[in-house]
Amino acid sequence: MRTTRVIPCLDVTGGRVVKGVGFVDLTDAGDPAELAQRYGEEGADEVVLLDITASSDERDTLISVVERTAERIFVPLTVGGGVRSVEDARRLLRAGADKVSMNTAALANPSLVAEVAAIFGRQCVVVAIDAKRRQGGWEVVTHGGRRPTGLDAVTWAVLAQRLGAGELLVTSMDRDGTRSGYDLELLSGITAATSVPVIASGGVGGLEDLVAGAAVGGADAVLAASIFHFGSHTVAEAKSAMAQAGLVVRPS
Amino acid sequence: MTTTARPRIAVLDYGIGNLRSAERALVKMGADAVLVTEADQARGADGVVLPGVGAFGPCAEALRNSGLESVALRALEAQTPFLGICVGLQLLYSGSQEDPTAKGLGAFPGAVIGLPEGEKRPQMQWNRLVATRGDSVLMSGDADGSWVYFVHSYAPVPGPETVATCDYGGPVVAAVESGPIWGTQFHPEKSADAGLAFLGRFVAACAKEN
């Protein structure tokens, strides 16, 4: 049996949850630990916490946010942002993260993915891929979509899996913050080429987008931020929409 | 939960992964849980929890190098309540296809094998438990049919100790029990209220030893 996970995402900067369009225009959405607890109680299958600024001087802030958040939920917690070394990954795991997500650092230093996987196991290694459409496919981008890498997103996904990623978090930077739905073709492209779980991200505007991410895009988990933070929908509503569409979800 | 006699549970901390959630969940369910890094710290414990994430070989090796393997072996021999979680369950067996040269604790004779072909590995999702034996304490209460969180690529071959399975390309062992020796392939500490109930039953079993 294959069950689709529903994952609220907390984009954090300076210890607060924020959400903006394409990673700019940030609006305050609350305390991460408090929101995580609420989502846990509402039936979230996991929580993802991404530090979207993650400059090195803010790392201690992130550790304390992770500690406070992990204390209040009994579902898996993935943390990303600023993981540049095995030591960074270790600190996050010790603080209470179950998985660490790597993005820019994995691109700059692919062997980091392999090292973290070898030491802590593939199950706790998530590689986050931010992708933008270009002619004939998608390009991996960094820095909130501002910096192109020239690398094909599907190629990178396959390589990341080979390096040791146990899961891929795929965000369409064309769709992120637009509420126009996931980039389903991007998801299909990556799920077809890889065999590890794929989390769909970027662009959810309504419950039908979550359904499509799994049913059409083939994603194993669907991630959203603003529809949950600003109260448009609850996790329970998301799950019942998915169940009605014939997807298997853990009842909340 | 507050009790006057909280059972003391030693969570073996041999340097693998995030153990704080297991510790916190046990405390929440009424235990005096402590992360132990040295064998002496586990002396007199009413119960032992053996966590484990990652691969079988590195876990078996780290457990041995930490000096905590003796704590596990003593607890198994003395029939002290014992709970192996995820790779901790797999370590209750003699060995695993994942790392054929690595040696487990050998409490159960069976083998640990890869998940069925054609399914994604790891199984990283919530799945529903199916109780397979009527006399299980671990699977008592409303455990049958409950939803719990799995992250694994290997699982034991079903044997007489199997008390629950989940469906993942066929029945896959999800929980084992033989007297006071228990194991869960899923993560009870990451399985919300349903998971906490399993830890509550383990804490209760340890309290009897107290």
Commentary on this structure:
The complex is a heterodimer of chains A (252) and B (210). Chain A is of the alpha/beta class and 252 residues long. Chain A has one domain: TIM Barrel (Alpha-Beta Barrel), CATH 3.20.20. Chain A has an eight-stranded parallel β-barrel with strand order 1-4-5-6-7-10-11-12, surrounded by eight helices. In chain A, strand 2 and strand 3 form a beta hairpin. With 210 residues, chain B is an alpha/beta fold. Chain B has a single domain, classed as Rossmann fold (3-Layer(aba) Sandwich). Helix content of chain B is 24%, strand content 30%. Chain B has five helices and 13 strands. In chain B, helix 1 links the parallel strand 1 and strand 2. The longest helix of chain B is centred in the last third of the chain and has 18 residues. The relative contact order of chain B is 0.18.
Provide the structure class of chain A. alpha/beta
Rounded to an integer, what's the Rg of chain B over CA atoms? 15 Å
Low-confidence stretches of chain A: none
Rough shape of chain B?
globular
> Which strand-content bin applies to the residues of chain A?
25-35%
- Beta-strand percentage of chain B? 25-35%
CATH class of chain B: Alpha Beta
In CATH, the homologous superfamily of chain B goes by the name: Class I glutamine amidotransferase (GATase) domain
The tally of beta strands of chain A, per DSSP, is: 12
**Secondary-structure-derived class of chain B:** alpha/beta
User: In whole angstroms, how far apart are the ends of chain A?
Assistant: 18 Å
Domain count of chain A, please report it: 1
| Tally of alpha and pi helices of chain A | 10
Low-pLDDT stretches of chain B = none
Classify the helix fraction of chain A into a percent range: 25-40%
